[in-house]
Design a protein that fits this description.
Blueprint: E1 4-12, H1 17-27, E2 31-35, E3 38-44, H2 51-65, E4 72-80, H3 81-91, E5 95-96, E6 101-104, E7 116-119, H4 132-144, E8 150-154, H5 160-167, E9 172-177, H6 180-192, E10 199-203, E11 214-220, H7 223-228, H8 230-236, E12 237-249, H9 253-262, E13 266-273, E14 276-282
Parallel strand pairs: 6-7, 8-9, 8-11, 9-10, 11-12
Antiparallel strand pairs: 1-3, 1-4, 2-3, 5-6, 12-14, 13-14
Helix pairs in contact: 1-2, 4-5
The structure holds S-adenosyl-L-homocysteine.
Length: about 280
Amino acid sequence: MQDKYFELLVSTDGAVNDLVVGFLSDVGAEGFVEEENELKCYFAESKWNPQYKEDVVRFLGHLRSEGKVGKYTVEVSEIMNQDWNMKWEESIVPIEVTDNIAIKPSWKEYNGSAKIVIEIDPKMSFGTGHHETTRMMVRLLEKYIKGGERILDVGTGTGVLAIAAIKLGADRCIAVDRDEWSIENSIENIRRNGVLEKVEVIRGEIASLGDEEFDFEVANLNRNTLLYIEPELRRRCKPGGVLLLAGLLTLDEEDIVKSYTKSGFKVVETLREAEWSAIALSK
Ligand code: SAH
């Protein structure tokens, strides 16, 4: 393939890669390669607009005014498709999330001792297992799934949490995402992991689901969405059910806990990694 791509190289001295990824995903970036203080963002030629460089610079200026970043540089270069695809594939390595659970892409071997191996081809959908929020959610799933549950996975992305839940013994899972690309990718991953008959994937928002209640709900989204969908999660969670939340920054923990405990959930456990928190609640 000789398709031309544009690479935006964002170098910063702060932990802002996730924020930049969020910002650029919305305008059409198709791939990201993360290195320590560098983020490479790829746009197909048809999706590229030179204005994006200025937009990112302005966005970083805004983050600087909030004290989240100090110095930064943004550079643009042209690149051939294969180059970044190869680099991206290399950057996805098998990862042991717990002693018992590993996540790997189909193109890499895993030779470790974890008994549950989840195969995820991310194709740019979020949820490779390389993000703190996904890893914390898998750890909490391992701890709180007892077997036989009916699960609701809101914002399934690659399907990773739905797959993990079934492999850990849950009975059925409804996995929802509003993004068409995630729907395709999650179905592919769910099939690849042999759990297709136990997971139903639905495109849309939680509010469009029926009134079915669940024993166990997971939602790895972001602060505002978590606050917004709290009533929807509450009314679908059985009394005694478990709810796992992630995608929130530690500094937003208080807001989330306040909103969820006000309505009858109790905090059971909180995990924190880098700037992220994940919370296990019971109803
Ligand atoms: N569950 C995966 C992916 C989390 S990323 C993991 O833990 O790794 C969040 C996903 O939620 C994205 O795929 C995004 O498309 C989806 N999403 C965001 N807001 C949503 C909403 N309001 N309703 C449904 N899906 C949503």
